[in-house]
Design a protein that fits this description.
Blueprint: E1 8-14, E2 25-34, E3 44-47, E4 53-63, E5 72-74, E6 77-79, E7 89-98, E8 106-113, E9 119-120, E10 129-135, E11 141-146, E12 161-166
Parallel strand pairs: 1-9
Antiparallel strand pairs: 1-2, 2-7, 3-6, 3-8, 4-5, 4-7, 8-10, 11-12
Length: 178
């Protein structure tokens, strides 16, 4: 008895960012690959906007004979490559805007679901195939210096008030004030 091969797909999500800045941007790269020997038409690539991300836009580039369903879009990514032959890839570049008050860590998961009967590589595990990126926010501090004085008197005194505040969502221990 000969068993026909099944679609095999994988996904990898990455970012060079090591911290999040509230209100800033972070760029993710998502690579969905047909790692098998048969076509994976009908595979669905998704990247929902996670808690801590206010919005996102994305572009798609294909190689190895694959074609993108759409060249670009915004919001949740939920795309089915128009063609997805063996050995091909679709690469999504996602530009996300971090919310003003992100949680302690933003956990961002991209998935690819192969067509029925397909599996995830490596390991030939059952779908969905996931790739998770966790990025912590960066501490944010502000400083304000003021004085009620409006004039300088030779040999007189001036009183300054310096207020340092942690305006972020994580500890800013180790901040140096000078």
């Amino acid at each position: 008895v000969t068993v026909p091969p099944v679609p095999q797909v994988s996904i990898q999500k990455s970012t060079p960012a090591t911290t999040l800045t509230p209100g800033g941007q972070i760029v993710y790269t998502i690579v969905a690959s047909n790692t098998g020997t048969v076509d994976a038409a009908g595979a669905v690539v998704s990247d929902p906007i996670p808690t801590g991300i206010a919005s996102q836009s994305w572009t798609c580039a294909a190689s190895g004979g694959a074609t993108c369903q759409n060249a670009s879009g915004s919001g949740n990514l939920n795309e089915t490559p128009a063609t997805f032959p063996a050995g091909s890839t679709v690469t999504y570049t996602v530009t996300a805007t971090v919310s003003a008050n992100p949680p302690a860590h933003v956990t961002n998961t991209a998935s690819v679901n192969p067509p029925p009967g397909g599996v995830c590589t490596p390991g030939n595990t059952t779908p969905p195939c996931n790739s998770i990126v966790v990025v912590p926010p960066v501490p944010q501090v502000s400083i304000q210096k003021s004085t009620p004085a409006t004039t300088l008197t030779p040999n007189g005194q001036i009183v300054y008030t310096i207020v340092v505040s942690n305006t972020g969502s994580v500890s800013a221990a180790g901040t140096v004030v000078s």
